[in-house]
Amino acid sequence: MLFRPLAIPGLIEFTCQRHGDERGYFAEAFRQSVFDQAMEDGANHRFVQDNESFSARVGTIRGLHYQTAPMAQGKLVRCLSGAIMDVAVDIRAGSASYGQWAALVLSAKAGNQLWIPPGFAHGFCTLAPDCRVSYKVTAYYSPEHDKGMRWDDPAIGIAWPAVADPETLSAKDRVQPLLADIAPIFGCAPVIALEGE
C-alpha cells in the first residue's frame, strides 16, 4: 500500500500494490501500519464502521456530507466497481485552505483510495454506470450530527465533471445550505472573555 499527500494538508491518496498472474491479482487493500505512517498529524485513527453505496446511473451526485463533533468522521474512500470523481472540501475554521476543494478520480481499475480526515465535507460524482463505493469511517453514523452543504456552492466552485446530473440529488441534498451560512464547526473554538476579566 503506497501513499501520496495531496495539495490540501490532511488529504492522502493510498494505492494498493497488485500482484497479478494469468488468474487475476492479489492486493492488500488496507494496512494499519502504513496508514499510521501516512498520518501527517500523528493522529491514531481507528475505523469503526464500513459503509457501501451503489449508484446505477452515470452522473449521480452524492454529497456534500460531514458529521459534527463529537461524531466527526474521517473517511477512507474506495471505488469497488466503476469510477468516481471524489471531492473533499476543507471546512476547518482557521485552516489556510478553508473553503478550498480537492478531487481525485477513484476507480476499481486503479485500486486507489482517498483519506479524508474530520473537518472536511465529502461528496462524489459517478463517472461510469453501476458504481459501488466503500468507505471506512472513524465514527459511527449519527443522525443528529449528520450535516451537509450545497454541492454547487459558487463560492467554493467545484469543477464537477460534465456528466454531473443535479436530477440525481437526494431530497436532502437539494436543500443543503451554502458554506457561508454554516457556523464554524471545526478547528479552534473562539476565546470568550469571562465576566470580570
UniProtKB/TrEMBL annotation:
Domain of life: Bacteria
Broad enzyme group: isomerase
Signal peptide: none
Entry's Gene Ontology molecular function annotations: dTDP-4-dehydrorhamnose 3,5-epimerase activity
The keyword Isomerase is assigned to this record: yes
Catalytic activity entry: dTDP-4-dehydro-6-deoxy-alpha-D-glucose = dTDP-4-dehydro-beta-L-rhamnose
SUPFAM superfamilies given in the database record: RmlC-like cupins
Annotated pathway: Carbohydrate biosynthesis; dTDP-L-rhamnose biosynthesis
Keywords of this entry: Isomerase
EC numbers: 5.1.3.13
Keyword hit for Isomerase: yes
Family annotation (NCBIfam families): rmlC (TIGR01221)
Similarity comment text for this entry: Belongs to the dTDP-4-dehydrorhamnose 3,5-epimerase family.
Assembly behavior: Homodimer.
Protein name: dTDP-4-dehydrorhamnose 3,5-epimerase
Source organism of the structure: Novosphingobium ovatum
